[in-house]
Amino acid sequence: MSTTSVQETPAPAEALPLASARESLAVLWPLLRERRGFLLLVGLAGLVGSVAGLVAPWVIGWLVDVLPDASDGAVVLVGAGAIAVAGVVGALCTWAGQTWLARLTEPTVARLREMVMDRSLRLGSAQMERTETGDLVSRVAEDAREISQAATTVIPLVVQSLFTVVVSGVGLVAVDWRLGLVGLVALPMYWTTLRWYLPRSGPIYAEERAAFGTRASRLLGGISGSRTLHAYDAQDSELERITAASGLARDLSIRVFYFVTRAFSRNNRAEATVLALLLVVGFFLVDAGMITAGAVTTAALLFHRLFNPIGALVGMADQVQSAGASLVRMVGVITMPVPERTAVPKPGPLELSGVSHSYGGDIAALVDIDFALAPGEVVAVVGSTGAGKSTLALVAAGSVVPSRGAVSLGGVPIADVDPVALREHITMVSQEVHTFATTLAENVRAPRPEADDAGVRAALRTVGADWVDDLPDGIDTVVGEGGHPLDPMQAQMIALARVELADPDVVILDEATAEAGSAGARQLDTAAAAVLKGRAGLVVAHRLSQAVTADRVLVMERGRIVEAGTHEELLRAGGRYAELGRAWFGG
Ligand SMILES: Nc1ncnc2c1ncn2[C@@H]1O[C@H](COP(=O)(O)OP(=O)(O)OP(=O)(O)O)[C@@H](O)[C@H]1O
């Protein structure tokens, strides 16, 4: 008796790697350097803006010195004018700096996202299959969003604060080095606050976010299940649960508030102490005739100017950390080593020899498959649910690496071919086709971005997608998420047009979009036939019509090929295929 278990089971899902800070910088720096013009402009705006910020403390100190001897109020007007001009310059610099920073960071984040996608495509679906589901998606979507948000909200503030702190610090030393030294006393005090704040803030915020999540899901659950709750008279107990979740979220928010207030009060204490120290030292220096009262005023105002930016830097440190964590996650994928796959497939048969596959667990999805698809031949695969048809298609397309056995095209093992290069030879349309959120033309063009509109239209004509002309903007209609809605059959036709444009040697189809016998099924069959013309095709038959027109039919049961032949031969044989055929015909 044969056994259907496969010995080599795949390794458990692995998490994608994280990059080190050095690797992240090595990836980020060339991207920023590409836009160094903006980098310079951001630096310039920050510097000029911060220097403009020095004008007010300096003018006020000057007024303190000159006013007692002034004959009229003209000096005040001069001082006020200088402060007003500096204010306008500062505002302009902030605005320009933020605009330039966005033009520096947004394309950089977009580029990082593309690099993650590119690397994951190069690694190939077979390797990506081994990683935790959702990990890649969250790195492309959530981490990119986190960095992008930080880039537009947190980073401008951090950059501006850093400039203000550095320039004001230098200004303070320039006014009088002794007062500058007093100002430095604040540094260790700020440092201890940061050391106290950072390790505690992350977990507290995470707990608060988790509590918000629970409250939201309880509320939504209560609303969507209100009928059931009424039916079972269970409103009160559900209300109690919602109140408890809500109470927890409220208590955590209050805790977060106390915590942040404590951090800021630590900073305030440091600031008040050092400011007092600065005034005392200033008093003695003025008394000794070493500096003027105006200079002490300027120094005190400059030191006071540091309060807000330093508070902002402390407050945003965890958001910067969180953006940093997202960056190392994205760069982790970008720096994943891509195995050398330089083999070039040759025209010839697609062969599966000794192929067995298990997704883990005891049941084998494929067992000892030996099968060759000749160039130009169309083979249909039939079988009951769970027989292994989709797995066979995925293995043949190189999307799943079988636990045992080999797959080759023209004698070249496809495992040695670069996944992107392999798609030029073997293309698969699966049950879940993805429509990208862009124009319909771009969707068709995906495998061949250089194709022109005429090529796109020709591919759509080949698959009989005449309905495209009725769309609001024809092939330029935006489809996908948030765009013009497409029904599953239209999405499938776009996927087929994509294959037509890609022009591979082997097409693997596994669609189950239309009900057998429906007008949609007939349209899809015609579209598939057009795409298969002149190419080898492996078609997972979800409708009998797909098997009838094939050159050969494979019948699968429990991971094995149990029958093979033409439609007529298999019907005559009266075996499993004939049985399936009767079920299909409903007779
Ligand atoms: N990603 C997966 N992880 C774990 N088991 C899987 C996975 N995909 C398929 N299987 C299992 O492998 C076996 C073969 O499934 P497969 O989808 O290849 O069959 P199928 O003939 O295409 O079925 P259907 O017609 O329902 O799509 C089934 O037992 C199925 O439960």
TrEMBL record:
Compartments, as annotated in UniProt: Cell inner membrane
ABC transmembrane type-1 domain segment(s): 40-322
Keywords: ATP-binding, Cell inner membrane, Cell membrane, Membrane, Nucleotide-binding, Translocase, Transmembrane, Transmembrane helix
Keyword Zinc: no
InterPro entries: AAA+_ATPase, ABC1_TM_dom, ABC1_TM_sf, ABC_transporter-like_ATP-bd, P-loop_NTPase, Type_1_exporter
Keyword Magnesium appears in the UniProt entry: no
Ranges that cross the membrane: 38-61, 73-95, 154-175, 181-198, 274-303
Membrane topology annotation: Multi-pass membrane protein
One Gene Ontology term of the molecular function aspect: ATP binding
Residue ranges of every copy of the ABC transporter domain listed in the record: 350-583
Family indicated by similarity: Belongs to the ABC transporter superfamily. Siderophore-Fe(3+) uptake transporter (SIUT) (TC 3.A.1.21) family.
PANTHER family named among the record's database cross-references: ATP-BINDING CASSETTE SUB-FAMILY B, ATP-BINDING CASSETTE SUB-FAMILY B MEMBER 6
Protein name per UniProt: ABC transporter ATP-binding protein
Species this protein is from: Dietzia aurantiaca
